[in-house]
Amino acid sequence: MRHFDLIIIGTGSGNSLLDPRFADLDVALVERGVFGGTCVNVGCIPTKMFVHAADLAATPGAAARLGVDETLDGVRWPEIRDRIFGRIDPIAEGGKAYREEHPDNANVTLYTGNARFVGERRLEIDGKETITADRIVLAAGGRPVVPAIEGIDDIAFHTSDTVMRLDELPARMVILGGGFIAAEFAHVFSSFGVEVTVVVRSGALLRQEDRDISARFTELAQARWDVRLDRKIERVERAGDGVRVRLVGDEVIDADVLLVAAGRTPNSDQLDVAVGGIKVDDHGYVVVDEFQRASAEGVWALGDISSPWELKHVANHEARVVQHNLLNPDKLLAADHRFVPHAVFTSPQIASVGLTEQEAQRQGVDYVTATHEYAGIAYGWAMEDTTGFAKLLADPKTGQLIGAHIIGPQASTVIQPVIQAMSFGLDARAMAHGQYWIHPAMPELIENALLKLPLEMGHWVRRMSDVRTRG
Ligand SMILES: Cc1cc2nc3c(=O)[nH]c(=O)nc-3n(C[C@H](O)[C@H](O)[C@H](O)COP(=O)(O)OP(=O)(O)OC[C@H]3O[C@@H](n4cnc5c(N)ncnc54)[C@H](O)[C@@H]3O)c2cc1C
Ligand SMILES: NC(=O)c1ccc[n+]([C@@H]2O[C@H](COP(=O)([O-])OP(=O)(O)OC[C@H]3O[C@@H](n4cnc5c(N)ncnc54)[C@H](O)[C@@H]3O)[C@@H](O)[C@H]2O)c1
């Protein structure tokens, strides 16, 4: 049995903890899968590489309306796939080789295997070797959920872990779920010419979004894909080389590929964290305090194993907090989860930060709201966009923004100044009036939505004029 100063489980965001400041510690890094974790291997990065290719494939459809005739001559799927993974796979190999072989990592031992708690700060690797440590970081992420559908064990189906490596493009794909992964892959595969059917148990796609965004996206998706809302799957079965999905009420969908996109679950169960004295919540997320400390002494957690946001920028932030706290045990830093944004890289893009209108109502928060269409700013008008908009929510008393939701071109970029304003407490009126907005650029969408917020101006105008007179 070997004892370490520090054990890190998981080489996704966990791998980024180690830098020269840890050189004096004897460290074990444990990884059971591909080195580098979800984001780089099967998550954010390859999906966005496919989304970029899909956006290109989709341009002829959008261009004709503006008088530019283009044709899509073909999508060379095997080449796209091999180009993408030809760039991705060496990152994993390089990262692993760096930790195993480079003199920078003389203090690091990489264990390739499954870690499981067999006691407090005591782990077994693949049921064979036992290792212990003074401190342990849980960065073991999560995995796709596969609902218990009758027949699912007897058919070949895909999750986001495997669907990007398909041998060939299918003619028809059925996607189960209406969340992030469904929305992104429906865009990718339909842009490449696949006939996509989306089966959702509720009445809308992306229903965690603000209800206006979810409603607009659902409407656009219905025009593009075969969207079956409010459906329940009765059973799935093999049909020739493909799958047959039977819905409750005699509806049948035949497809070549079934993609299950029904959410993800944290890997805490497979780590037997309870044996290590580590508490989880009702959904299996490791419970952490503001400093990312788990309930057991000396144990820390970060990323998808403890974070219901399941987003890479959150995992990265928490990794920086844990890194600081491991190095500065007497000066702990708290994680900042006040304004966690997200974007869905579908078409059109969607981006959001802060409270949705339905959340504000549920929480009894006082708010005012304003919506501005892309068609109402010069660039959106030039593009002849007819469906995109930004919706803002603000506190009527303080003028602070409390939520922003955008659907439309470049939404993931256009939202960034709002995230900044919320994070630094910038008043919506100051934000609108106190700076130039480049004309005619896309952020004018935010400027116009800000100007529309029904906020009281008197006191604020006096303050601005004071600043200008003094200046
Ligand atoms: C298809 C897809 C697209 C996504 N796109 C985005 C996006 O655009 N933007 C965004 O912000 N987020 C995105 N995400 C989410 C993002 O990928 C995750 O939030 C992030 O990767 C989580 O990082 P992590 O370090 O917590 O876990 P991971 O990166 O999952 O790392 C955990 C590691 O621990 C290992 N492990 C697990 N259990 C054990 C064990 N018992 N023993 C040893 N090793 C173990 C795993 O093999 C894995 O390598 C996407 C996710 C998916 C699935
Ligand atoms: N752009 C991004 O940031 C990005 C992209 C992809 C994934 N992700 C992360 O990965 C996570 C997982 O994505 P996801 O799309 O799988 O999850 P999700 O939570 O976004 O959506 C899951 C969908 O599956 C449905 N569902 C759940 N259980 C079901 C069941 N038993 N039967 C039928 N339908 C069911 C839900 O109603 C929902 O529509 C996300 O929460 C997100 O944080 C992020």
Compact summary:
With 471 residues, the protein is α/β, with parallel strands linked by helices.
3D architecture notes:
The structure is a single chain. The chain has 471 residues and is α/β, with parallel strands linked by helices. The chain has three domains: 2-144 and 265-327, FAD/NAD(P)-binding domain, CATH 3.50.50.60; 152-262, FAD/NAD(P)-binding domain, CATH 3.50.50.60; 348-470, FAD/NAD-linked reductase, C-terminal dimerisation domain (Enolase-like, domain 1). 31% of the residues lie in helices and 23% in strands. The chain has 13 helices and 21 strands. It has helices at residues 37-42, 44-63, 77-101, 180-191, 211-224, 312-327, 357-362, 378-383, 411-414, 416-423, 428-433, 444-452, 458-470; strands at 2-9, 27-31, 108-112, 115-119, 122-125, 129-138, 142-144, 172-176, 195-199, 226-228, 233-239, 242-247, 252-255, 257-260, 264-266, 299-301, 342-344, 350-354, 368-373, 389-394, 401-407. The strands form five sheets. Strands 1, 2, 3, 4, 5, 6 and 16 form a seven-stranded mixed beta sheet that branches. A five-stranded antiparallel beta sheet has the order 17-18-21-20-19, with helices on both faces. Strand 9 (195-199), helix 5 (211-224) and strand 10 (226-228) form a beta-alpha-beta unit. Helix 2 packs antiparallel against helix 3 (77-101). It is globular and about 65 Å long. The termini are far apart. The model has no long low-confidence stretch (mean pLDDT 97). Bound molecules: flavin-adenine dinucleotide (FAD) and nicotinamide-adenine-dinucleotide (NAD). The site of flavin-adenine dinucleotide has 34 residues, from strand 2, helix 1, helix 2 and helix 6.
